[in-house]
Design a protein that fits this description.
Layout lengths: L1 E6 L2 E6 L3 E5 L8 E4 L2 E5 L4 E3 L8 E21 L4 E20 L1
Length: 103
Amino acid sequence: MYAVIKTGAKQHRVSEGDVLSVEKLAGAKGDEVVFNEVLMVSDDKAVKVGKPFVEGAKVVGQIVAQKKGQKLIVYHMKKRKGFHKKTGHRQNLTSMKITKITA
């Protein structure tokens, strides 16, 4: 069984037991998070697609860690002007373990 959820303006395909990184969510390590915005649920028998969300479906996850992602380098340059600027950015992420999918 798997589901497609929407969180942080992104969509993720998840199954029970998966560990994934999503944009930062409020909570501490060990807290439970419920995702109600389920776009699709699939099991062995059928596929349910929502318009836009599947009614009554939810995905429950547990926070494993609050961390920072990889550093992204942002480089700006204007040709023939001698201007260049290099900066970096690290996104705050929440590592989640999916514990239960209900449809």
